[in-house]
Specification:
Elements (H helix, E strand, L loop, with lengths): L2 E4 L5 H18 L10 H13 L3 E7 L5 E12 L8 E11 L8 H15 L4 E4 L6 H9 L14
Parallel strand pairs: 4-5
Antiparallel strand pairs: 1-2, 2-3, 3-4
Length: 158
């Protein structure tokens, strides 16, 4: 049984440890962008700041015994209209991580659905996220969950 709950400031150490799962993957593929060993205090501060932000929802997934299985960090964004584009309210999934032992067990899907629900409750019309091209597992997960590519961001080292 997977339980999803809103994280609190009491969870920042746990969130920092869960973040290491996805951070290590990013650092392995893009060490030019991601720190090798981020300072624990700084990572905890990152989560503390986001938990206090009313536009941000941080969710924790827990198993039947209360063990942490993963987390998601999402933000409601209001985009004003322009001469060319409609205004929009979106929920942006900025981070998601699942412990390796719980991969492919429904934890990611439960977190994603909880983010969708938070977005709907906030009046959002769409869910958006981005994924690093090297992260084939995440791309497959999002595609299976019904998300489709919206744009492609390109990168070139100079």
């Amino acid at each position: 049984m997977i339980q999803i709950r809103t994280a609190s400031s009491d969870d920042v150490a746990l969130l920092a440890s869960l973040n290491q799962i996805v951070h290590d993957l990013h650092n392995r593929h893009r060490p030019d962008l991601f720190l090798d060993s981020p300072e624990l205090d700084a990572v905890e501060g990152f989560f503390r700041t986001h938990i206090a932000d009313p536009s941000v929802t941080v969710l924790l997934a827990e198993g039947a015994e209360g063990e942490a299985l993963g987390y998601a960090l999402a933000r409601v964004r209001n985009r004003p209209g322009t001469a060319l584009e409609h205004s929009d309210i979106i929920v942006s999934l900025d981070q998601i991580a699942v412990v390796p032992d719980a991969a492919r067990s429904g934890v990611g899907a439960a977190l994603l659905e909880a983010v969708r629900e938070a977005g709907r409750a906030a009046g959002c019309r769409r869910l958006v996220t981005d994924v690093w091209y090297f992260n084939e597992g995440a791309r497959a997960f999002y595609q299976a969950a019904g998300l489709s590519p919206m744009n492609v961001r390109l990168d070139q080292r100079l």
